[in-house]
Amino acid sequence: MTDEAARGKKIKFAGGYMKRKIISGLLSAAMAIIVVINPVGANEPEKTDLTYVEPGRYLIKLPVILAGAAGYFKEEGLNVDIRIAPGQRVYEALLAGDSDFIAVSYGSMMKINQQGKEIHSVCNITRNCLFHLVAKPSIKRIQDLKGKRIGVPKVGEEVTAVIRAALKKKGLDPDKDVKWVSVGIQATMVAAMKRGDIDAVGAVGEWRDHLLRAVPGTHVIIDYSKESDLKKYLGATTYPLAHVQMTADFIDKNPETTQKVVNAVMKSLNFINTHTPVECIDVVKEKYWAEADRDVLVKYLTEIKDAFSPDGITQKSGYDVVVKVNSEAGLLKKPAPGFEVITDLRFVKKSNEVEKKK
After folding, report:
1. pTM of the predicted structure, to 2 decimals
2. For 10-44, b where at least 16 C-beta lie within 10 A, e where not — what string?
3. pLDDT tens, position by position, 305-337
């Protein structure tokens, strides 16, 4: 081979090498762009049509409801049917597969896990307890409840637990000094107070204010939305109340779907924490609270807006408070399931990590 031919062959070989280097570089850049564009839940969800049920419409669940109204579920490739469950049977719906996820209290989830059901929290949405005790005008202080009737949505549930803690702090025996009455939620609760069937009632969320308007003279004697009452009666500064929950089986079989549900709820939490109460209510009012009093919704959300989680993370200290309150109330008959057993932080941590990189 001549020297000229050899040089030509080397040039040809070098050119091919450079082309392969360029193509390889372009492919790497393209892959990097794809990762940056869609880093969380980049894979397709295993299940796209989901059902979410709740016992009643409350602002406590606003992060889930807003995710539907604002289109965040749609952005994640999910079609979520938001329903109210008849008779508050949300766990029955979840375990039967009629609901894919729910958002109810941490204490209730602990109780259901003690019955051998594997249900996990995948995102905390409220870090404070939004339960309130509203009483008739004649009851000025907690001690005045001795011998009286206290209404709760259902005797033996978490509203009962936090009220029992306050009664004990003020020297009353929750089992002997008061009578507990199951009155249901929302309108049935208001009706029971109007009829005089009860002397005080544990009101959930904004139904505190609906009740105050409907029954003149009633007033709040315990307000767990305030840090002062949390400290006074529960010895805590936080109480992680509402959590997005799924069965362990659903999470195992649908990790991408689970991630996308959490992503959507995290977008809602970010919206709530960066917008005014009026702006938040504007998003959800027409579709999900059409018949509710707008002024009540705005007023209540203004008061409790800081109760929503900033990052979806459940702290072990919050878990400990919920365990203590529910155990002392007798709602947990056995040792509580471990924090790591029922609290799956993988999905919120992934959402948070990606958000920080933006």
Report:
1. 0.85
2. eeeeeeeeeeeeeeeeeeeeeeeeeeeeeebbeee
3. 999 999 999 999 999 999 999 999 999 989 999
